[in-house]
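Hello forum,

I keep getting stuck at the same step: I have a sequence, I want structure tokens, and every attempt I make locally crashes halfway through. Rather than fight my setup again tonight, could one of you with a working pipeline run this one for me? It's a single chain of 247 residues.
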Amino acid sequence: MEHSTLIHFIFGDLLQAELKSRHFVPHFHEEYSIGWIHDGYCNMECDGTLTKIVPGQLILLNPYQVHSARTSSFLSYEMRYVKQAFVHDFLGELKAFSHKVVTAPEVIQALEKGKDDTAIYQAVFSQYAHAPLQVSLEKNRLLQKACHFIEGQWEKPLSLHDLSNFLGLSPTYCSRWFKKNIGIPPRTYHRLFRLAKAKDMIRKGISLSDAAFACGFSDQSHMTKELTTFFGVTPANLFRKQDRTQQ
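Reply #2:
Ran it on my machine without issues. Output:
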């Protein structure tokens, strides 16, 4: 039986899931992603490299790092989506993980025991993150304009024609140029940003139907399908529990 739950903690969100044969399409997270597998395996593609991930290995992804994955017939795993602000508070800056996958069973054990222990996260970043974090759109003003335009359309369908006109590019070139620099097409970026808005609304207690309507989904079922496609979790399992420190 499949199961997934997203729980809110002081560092961000914790996803615990058990899935059957899932394909996660290319996507990214605004947060740092730290995760591991309890049972099964998955093949993750990131930065043009395909990596098989098994129990005992730690997954380390930077914000906005595009990745996709295919799981084994059964997969039990856990992901921590760590807020950039949380990392900045104890590092004084944002740094990038230098490796996407490392073998670190002891670190995994420590993370499992101390979900809210800031010292553990400090240790993870001190050991595996060294260079300053650089996001593509921060280095390219035209990319910034493109992303800001798309983000401003989150309540309605994205028009590639309107985006290309805004940037002064042809629609075909605009789509190729955006994917080359960001790693996903404009419409996928739009879908992810809209889902981020929906997740934030659900976290604040807004009903699923109202969140779906406000974010421009055709209905609640449409929002559910999108969340499952990208993140492997249904709206009903979002933030089912609250950490005691947040109450």
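Residues 241-247 have pLDDT under 50 and may be disordered. If your local run keeps crashing, start a new thread with the error log.
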